[in-house]
Design goal:
Length: 450
């Protein structure tokens, strides 16, 4: 590493840390200065991206950088879309989602590049293999750097991180951003190697192979490793006021992520050392692939549990006459939510479907606030009021839409159904409520349906 390279790396690291301090100061001291906060974060990301882009262009050239950037973007929609889909039924601010992805792509990669490059130089100066940095420093600094972004969300915007699913979405996006930026580095190097060995076509062929391996077979490697840290962060979010236990969860699962990362990198380094390139390919199906599918199953279970939590948290509203039993049942699973949207579309078309979708999201927001209260965390009365307002407005679109259903209302204990003869009869709620059946509100209760 030349003197100018070292100097610029130090200046880049200093700029990132300084801008990070400014951003944290604005978060802590001027929460309402949203524009300044966004500008500060943008500057932080620009600083990190500049360090990364400069390092790649200096090492491989502008043409290789352009090819690497194009290749790295290809798997990005799948990576990002996966985590957005995972958390799509809970309202999460797009700025927070973009922050986590940008942190992984711009800041975490710049920090990792500076530290890992320095570690390689130090190893080489001490007559050690610089490739050991991939096993010694990379797992540690990369996992810490990726986790710092979601940790900032947890420390400064805790209302947006209430459990493991939230943590998995945010950490997954940070890992996805890191993977995309790292792919730019590797694809640029692959193009340069192929071009220098033969010609540009050979460089493109090497990039194609790299994209097939890193962009398809192992695209979720970084999100998987950060996903282990997400489990600790999510568990910590569910333990308010218990600092020791929170710290144990976060550090413990971070160490698990580091260990997996070291195993991942170590298999490649050891395979090269032993002239056994098949070592990594043996480790992948034997250990890493099963772990990946286990994490996928856990993520889907958490997503389903998020829906079930809505049913549990909103149960007291049934007795209050604010939510009917079938309405509550329709929120319990994503298949039931889809059935409710299909019903609304059948009788009110696209506006009805959109209204039902908004009702479900508002109900999830409301359930989140009640869930926070159940674990001892503060809730937001304004968000509760707004969620109830959205639910009422949505109901008004499709209530009474089904002409085959008699007029009825739910009072918190019984249904009051108006029969064709004009008489109103009280009926007990069935043990397995049908859903959704539109019910107009009684005068003493908010709009509801059964």
């Amino acid at each position: 590493m030349s003197l100018s390279t070292t100097t610029l790396a130090i200046l880049g690291a200093a700029a990132i840390l300084a801008l990070g301090g400014i951003v944290l100061a604005w978060i802590g001291l001027a929460r309402k200065a949203r524009g300044i906060l966004i500008a500060g974060v943008a500057l932080l990301f620009v600083a990190g991206a500049t360090v990364l882009a400069w390092a790649i262009v200096e090492g491989t050239g502008a043409q290789a950088f352009a090819v690497g950037l194009a290749a790295a973007i290809l798997p990005a929609p799948v990576l990002v879309g996966t985590f957005l889909w995972l958390g799509r039924y809970r309202r999460r601010p797009w700025l927070v989602l973009a922050f986590c992805f940008g942190w992984g792509a711009c800041v975490a990669t710049a920090i990792a590049l500076i530290v890992n490059t320095t570690a390689s130089v130090l190893l080489e100066k001490n007559d050690l293999d610089p490739n050991l940095a991939a096993v010694v420093s990379a797992p540690v600094i990369e996992e810490i750097a990726k986790l710092l972004g979601p940790l900032l969300v947890y420390w400064t915007a805790r209302r947006h991180l209430t459990g493991t699913l939230d943590a998995l979405v945010y950490c997954g996006l940070a890992g996805a951003g890191f993977a995309v930026a790292e792919n730019v580095l590797y694809a640029s190097g692959a193009y340069l190697n192929g071009s220098e060995s033969l010609d540009a076509a050979a460089g493109l062929a090497q990039v194609t192979i790299l994209v097939a391996v890193r962009g398809l077979a192992t695209m979720f490697a970084h999100p998987l490793m950060t996903g282990l840290s997400a489990i600790g962060l999510g568990k910590a979010a569910r333990k308010p006021g218990r600092k020791g236990l929170q710290t144990v969860w976060i550090i413990g699962m971070l160490l698990c992520g580091m260990s997996l990362h070291a195993l991942w990198n170590g298999s490649s380094v050891l395979g090269v050392k032993l002239d056994m390139p098949a070592l990594w390919f043996a480790l992948y199906p034997a250990f890493l692939a099963p772990l990946f599918f286990t994490m996928v199953g856990a993520a889907l279970w958490l997503r389903a549990a998020d829906a079930r939590r809505s049913q549990t948290a909103l149960a007291p509203m049934v007795a209050a006459g604010q939510v009917s039993p079938p309405e509550l049942a329709s929120l319990a699973t994503f298949s039931r939510r889809a059935a409710a949207r299909a019903w609304a579309f059948r009788f009110r078309g696209k506006p009805g479907e959109d209204a039902m979708k908004d009702f479900q999201r508002a109900a999830s927001d409301l359930a989140e606030q009640y869930d926070l209260a159940s674990i001892g965390r503060p809730w937001d009365d304004r968000r509760i009021e707004y969620a109830v307002h959205r639910m009422n407005a949505a109901r008004a679109v499709y209530t009474g839409a089904d002409p085959a259903m008699p007029a009825a209302l739910w009072d918190g204990r019984q249904y009051h159904v108006t029969f064709p003869d004009g008489r109103v009869r009280a009926l007990e709620a069935p043990s397995q409520p049908l859903m959704p059946l539109p019910v107009p509100p009684p005068p003493a209760y908010p709009v509801s349906y059964a």
